[in-house]
């Protein structure tokens, strides 16, 4: 009997890393479609069609969709089912306000510790992210924007990590997929080269201007999407 590409259960040998469950894999596949733009904002997510596409039960699909709802990549509405999140003005502003509360405060805390001469160890993870973006820019092939967005998010996570504040780091990490969704929508406003240049300048400014530099950066990206 043929085995489903997203079979419900997989056997594991002793000591092996647990394989992703069917729910994990359906959620990952739909998440990628959302974050790549293949599924536009407001697109209905249908249990029956997803069940047929991935060869799993509707129960599995339903659980996967609920995971995406918990990540704020989708919304569940009474009598309308589950849809891809519509990234409207209110959503953008609310997310950016939350990001500012976490990221700007993280930089403020780090600045109190380091002053205007941050040690290289504190800046290295963000520099590494910029280096990874630079390597992508040098490739003689189309830009993998989903990978760019993941590294872009790593840059901002690195700034937050410099605070060494466990609760702020944890809260920022919880934004996860929602932050990637924001970066998808801001993508048309950048080339990869301009994205790298803007973030390199930001990293140079942060030790000197601290939280105000990051606040201006986030306000700029907000204006790109809401037009004011």
From TrEMBL:
**Could you confirm whether the keyword Transcription appears in this record?**
yes
Q: Which SUPFAM superfamilies match?
A: GntR ligand-binding domain-like, Winged helix' DNA-binding domain
Q: Which domain of life is it from?
A: Bacteria
Per the UniProt entry, the signal peptide is none
**Does this UniProt record's set of keywords contain Hydrolase?**
no
> What would be an example GO MF term here?
DNA binding
The protein's name in its UniProt record? DNA-binding GntR family transcriptional regulator
Species for this entry: Agromyces ramosus
């Amino acid at each position: 009997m043929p085995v489903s590409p997203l079979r419900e259960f997989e056997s594991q040998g002793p000591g092996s890393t647990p394989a992703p469950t069917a729910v994990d894999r359906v959620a990952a596949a739909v998440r990628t479609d959302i974050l790549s733009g293949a599924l536009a904002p407001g697109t209905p997510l249908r249990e029956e069609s997803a069940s047929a596409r991935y060869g799993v039960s509707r129960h599995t699909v339903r659980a996967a969709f609920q995971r995406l709802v918990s990540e704020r990549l989708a919304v569940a509405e009474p009598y309308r089912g589950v849809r891809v999140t519509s990234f409207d003005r209110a959503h953008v502003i609310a997310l950016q306000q939350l990001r500012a509360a976490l990221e700007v405060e993280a930089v403020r805390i780090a600045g109190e510790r380091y002053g205007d001469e941050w040690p290289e160890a504190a800046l290295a993870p963000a520099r590494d992210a910029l280096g990874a973006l630079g390597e992508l820019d040098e490739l003689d092939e189309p830009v993998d924007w989903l990978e760019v967005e993941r590294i872009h998010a790593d840059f901002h996570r690195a700034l937050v990590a410099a605070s060494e504040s466990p609760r702020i780091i944890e809260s920022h990490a919880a934004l996860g997929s929602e932050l990637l969704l924001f970066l998808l929508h801001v993508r048309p406003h950048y080339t990869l080269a301009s994205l790298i240049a803007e973030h390199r300048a930001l990293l140079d400014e942060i030790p000197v201007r601290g939280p105000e530099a990051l606040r201006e950066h986030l306000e700029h990206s907000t204006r790109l999407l809401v037009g004011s």
